[in-house]
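Renewal narrative, Specific Aim 1. Our central claim is that a sequence can be written position by position from structural information alone. The example that follows is taken directly from our test logs and has not been curated for this report. It begins with the structure tokens describing the chain, in the order in which they were read.
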């Protein structure tokens, strides 16, 4: 197969062709730079021409990286420009809209405005391309894919009663800030019962999570935190005996351990490196994958930091405020630095669902509605034989605010 492209934005064009043809479809190709559009010439000499509807407008390479160049509609682009737009997240580089945690919010994205977040639009484009190629050459052999579930757990707080000092502080806040004698009493009764080992700590659900994973034939990924520098961090110490024993238990059962970089590590290379080294030392584990705390992410800084630290894959890319396909795809893919214009070794496993999206950012959510939305996305991923990456925190089961949602995790996975 030969693919001919115009003589501009060559790194960008080659990146998206590599991802679509080699990574997604499993087709090798030779590149020639002598065309006005995308010309795909098959081994039987039949040709598919795809009009260049985007990059031909910006012959000076990085000229396209401006907010005014965000298209009015994803559908107005050629399929390669549309896939490049969704996968590289260059939209987030030029659109500076941010929430209180300095995150690019779902509502600011073109996909949200077009009602596409619940659809893997890149997968749809790739499916259409595959169909057109088969019409020209029915002997083509494509990569075989199987539906896969990847269960991940960000360990923000391993225990609700981690230390007596934290317990006292929380109890005081029950009185002074939350003004609730009831919460104060419930917290202290729970603390006593837990310390007397009459009940399990509400956040200690690690065995349960591994049980569910093993029940459906997969392994869990647990992402742990190092020492941070903000009030959003330091809910535990990675050298604490409970953590060391927990890590051994996870290893003994064959599950996986990764990093959950602290609040400020997403754009701080020194902080990230320190935390990675800390975890590798304390947990006696090679750290190669994980997810950013609070889903904080900056294009292209975060990906480059992970690349420079020889990480294999990241799974941060989902919107905190809205479930679905932030990258428009349910396949793992190589990432691209839009500033250096290089394809990185790092892979992105797009996160499809985080349980907190429904309870923290979508108020008044009923359990039935939450379950329905998760199942819809799971089935959409299954339709494309993709990877359903699911985040459920260990702390989201036994507390008062989570009890009514607690059975959803097992229900959507096991039923």
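The sequence written for that structure reads:
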């Amino acid at each position: 197969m030969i693919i001919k492209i115009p003589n501009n934005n060559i790194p960008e064009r080659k990146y998206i062709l590599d991802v679509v043809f080699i990574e997604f479809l499993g087709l090798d190709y030779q590149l020639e730079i002598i065309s006005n559009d995308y010309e795909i010439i098959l081994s039987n000499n039949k040709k598919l021409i795809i009009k260049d509807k985007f990059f031909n407008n910006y012959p000076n390479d990085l000229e396209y990286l401006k907010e005014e160049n965000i298209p009015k509609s994803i559908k107005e682009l050629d399929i390669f420009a549309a896939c490049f737009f969704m996968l590289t997240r260059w939209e987030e580089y030029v659109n500076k809209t941010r929430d209180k945690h300095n995150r690019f919010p779902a509502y600011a994205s073109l996909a949200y405005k077009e009602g596409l977040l619940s659809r893997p639009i890149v997968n749809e484009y790739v499916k259409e391309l595959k169909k057109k190629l088969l019409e020209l050459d029915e002997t083509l052999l494509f990569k075989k894919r199987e539906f896969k579930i990847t269960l991940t757990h960000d360990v923000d707080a391993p225990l609700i009663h981690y230390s007596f000092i934290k317990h006292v502080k929380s109890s005081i806040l029950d009185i002074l800030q939350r003004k609730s004698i009831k919460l104060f009493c419930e917290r202290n009764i729970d603390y006593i019962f837990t310390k007397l080992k009459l009940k399990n700590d509400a956040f200690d659900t690690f065995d349960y999570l591994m049980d569910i994973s093993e029940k459906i034939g997969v392994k869990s990924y647990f992402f742990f935190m190092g020492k941070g520098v903000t009030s959003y961090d330091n809910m535990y110490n990675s050298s604490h005996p409970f953590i060391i024993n927990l890590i051994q238990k996870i290893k003994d059962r064959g599950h996986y351990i990764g990093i959950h970089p602290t609040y400020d590590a997403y754009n701080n290379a020194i902080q990230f490196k320190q935390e990675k080294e800390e975890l590798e030392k304390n947990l006696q584990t090679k750290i190669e994958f994980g997810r950013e705390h609070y889903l904080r992410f900056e294009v292209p800084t975060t990906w480059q930091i992970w690349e420079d630290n020889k990480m294999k894959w990241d799974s941060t890319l989902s919107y905190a405020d809205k479930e679905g396909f932030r990258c428009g795809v349910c396949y793992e893919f190589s990432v691209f630095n839009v500033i250096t214009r290089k394809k990185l070794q790092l892979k992105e496993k797009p996160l499809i669902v985080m349980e907190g999206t429904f309870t923290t950012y979508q108020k008044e959510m009923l359990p039935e509605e939450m379950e329905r939305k998760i199942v819809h996305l799971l089935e959409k991923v299954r339709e494309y034989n993709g990877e359903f990456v699911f985040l459920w925190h260990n702390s989201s089961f036994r507390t008062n605010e989570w009890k009514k949602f607690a059975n959803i995790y097992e229900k959507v996975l096991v039923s």
